Amino acid sequence: MTFTKQTSVEQNNGAMSALLRKSQVDIAGLEHKAKQIRNMILQMCISTGGHIVSSLSFVDILVTLYYGGNLNFDANNPEWEDRDRFFLSKGHGETALYAVLADQGVFPISWLDTRYRKGDCRLGGHPDKEIPGVEITSGSLGHGLGLAAGISLAAKMDNKAHLQFVLMGDAECTEGSVWEAALFASKHGLNNLIAIVDRNRIGSIDFTKNFTSLEPFCEKWKSFGWETTVCDGHDCKQLHEAFQNARSSDTSLPLMIIAETIKGKGIPFMENDPTWHVRSLSSEEDIKRAKEALRWQ
Amino acid sequence: MAVETKAYSIDMRDAFIKELYARAKAEPNIVFLSNEYGAPSLDIFRRDLPKQFINAGISEQNLISVAAGLALGGKKVYVYSIASFITLRCYEQLKIDLCSMNLPVTLIGVGPCYAYSVDGPTHHATEDIAIMRALANMQLYSPADSNMAAAIVDVSLQSTTPIYCRLDKGKYPLLYKQNEDLSAGFTVLKEGEDICIIATGMMVHRAIEIAEELNKYSIKAQVVDVYRLKPIDTRNLLSVVRNAKKIITIEEHTIHGGLGSIISEILTDANVFLPLKRLAVPDELLYTYGMRENIHREVGIDTDSVVKTILEWEQ
């Protein structure tokens, strides 16, 4: 497989793709796009390694945001002042973000082949702000929510309508700074801030329940003054509805979308297995099985 | 050359905040963040400009992330706290959120080193220069009087990079005039050919005192105030100090990585081999606290000790 531009779903043709009505969105198209993005992630990770299972975990979330018209974003002008901002706080989901941004045309798709973790490296093992379309440098956890809270507050001060979407990992929520930001966001009524937790229940070496007390997770966020909603993080329809509701909501609170996911989703032998966080696809047999699982295109 | 006067200034932080208040009234884009830390001058800012003041609570990590987010959103951001907390407690946020994204946020750290002398090691910012200068893109200012503290406001408003400004507590004699041009980064406050004394912040006043004392022994000391610790105009500083017979740095900061280290590095890199003594806080003094003068005596950076050190060195 070589990377080529995919065009099967409504392409983000600038700001226009945003704010599609519920009835207009093509859920089957989103699912097809998600499959393409998973293939692109696999290709990148076969070639140079990378965080494969962490990325596979939230592909459907990212696709529903970027291709479902839920992110008001202009791929031709990624610095557009009034854009909605997407913050990848779990920086180890870089391959999914790079695949989407390249597919959207924000930077050349050839970079996935030639510049990810190799050569004249522009796409690192964690994203940085110098990359077109990337809002923040991430990789160390617990930064994204506070950064997004700051920009959400600036938007409020200036009466700007853009929204901030922050994607965090659930294990990331063991960082104290996450809860500092949670307190801050609710106090300041940042209803333009939407956090999504990729709730795959696995950290980098173990299941979260074996090393921390996240549960009752949803109630924790509620008690910190957040609106909360829980959905299936691999169901584009549910995700789309959650995002649509977030935009149309008249709440004065920040919103937490807890997306229940499976780490490694799409490649069954990697799914829900903590050991795959840092493993690379080295054996021919694993590569073959992974390709078969994704019905390699 | 600075003006020499015995006139006493106001507290440096009040001078800074008053100047910023005047600017912020005219510029609503200026936002001031604090972590539950106040000042009488800040009370006026809070009262008159409530939309531009945010008390972010005692959450230093989030404080810096929010400051960075506000800067990404186009705000001109100031973050105000006790020096020890705004440097150490949120160090990674400084590195990633501010410095790696090179955002023009100004950090105002009140009370470097032993300014909170009796409050113990939690409040002693004994390593702020060392750690803050290690951060890429970060500028460091260390004013010696309130006029300079106020003048740094203008520098920070023009800046395109993050700034750490360490402000001492208390009132010090004025060494500089209002609206001083700070582009040089250092000032020769006194000429003298026998020894060059280099200091920063409140220790500049100590250096002047030492020079006056040395005069009694017919030792002519040059006094240099390095008020911008990063970046330093190395070439110009070298041209000023390279003719000295010997150099002594005095600082209220750990011996590792502060002003003495900076001067030593500059001399070494330029192949200028002058006798250099670095007087600073030794490595083992973490749990030393009490009255500031007492600590200085223990460390050997009070006037008498430094003069004694220099006289012995002269022999």
Topology:
The complex is a heterodimer of chains A (297) and B (315).
Chain A: H1 27-48, H2 52-57, H3 59-67, E1 85-88, H4 94-104, H5 110-114, H6 144-157, E2 164-169, H7 176-187, E3 193-199, H8 217-223, E4 227-232, H9 236-248, E5 255-260, H10 284-293
Parallel strand pairs in A: 1-2, 2-3, 3-5, 4-5
Helix pairs in contact in A: 1-3, 1-4, 3-9, 6-7
Chain B: H1 12-26, E1 30-34, H2 40-48, E2 53-55, H3 60-72, E3 76-82, H4 83-87, H5 91-100, E4 105-110, H6 128-133, E5 139-141, H7 146-158, E6 163-167, E7 186-190, E8 195-199, H8 203-215, E9 221-226, E10 228-230, H9 234-241, E11 247-254, H10 259-269, E12 276-281, H11 292-299, H12 303-314
Helix pairs in contact in B: 1-2, 1-7, 3-5, 8-12
Short description:
Helices cover 37% and strands 10% of the residues of chain A.
What does this structure look like?
Chain A is α/β, with parallel strands linked by helices and 297 residues long. Chain A has one domain (28-293): Thiamin diphosphate (ThDP)-binding fold, Pyr/PP domains (Rossmann fold, 3-Layer(aba) Sandwich), CATH 3.40.50. In chain A, 37% of the residues lie in helices and 10% in strands. Chain A has a 5-stranded parallel beta sheet, with helices on both faces. In chain A, strand 4 (227-232), helix 9 (236-248) and strand 5 (255-260) form a beta-alpha-beta unit. In chain A, helix 1 (27-48) crosses helix 3. The longest helix of chain A is centred in the N-terminal third of the chain and has 22 residues, at 27-48. With 315 residues, chain B is an alpha/beta fold. Chain B folds into 2 domains: 12-167, Rossmann fold, CATH 3.40.50.970; 186-314, Rossmann fold (3-Layer(aba) Sandwich), CATH 3.40.50. In chain B, the strands form 2 sheets. Chain B has a 7-stranded mixed beta sheet, with helices on both faces. In chain B, strands 7-9-8-11-12 form a 5-stranded mixed beta sheet, sandwiched between helices. In chain B, strand 11, helix 10 and strand 12 (276-281) form a beta-alpha-beta unit. In chain B, helix 1 (12-26) packs parallel to helix 7 (146-158). The radius of gyration of chain B is 19 Å and the shape is globular. Chain B starts with 11 loop residues before the first helix and ends with a helix. Mean pLDDT of chain B is 95; it is low at 1-5. The A-B interface holds A 128-129, 135-138, 140, 142-143, 145-155, 157-158, 176-177, 180-181, 183-184 and B 31, 51, 54, 56-57, 59, 61-62, 64-75, 92-93, 96-97, 100-101.
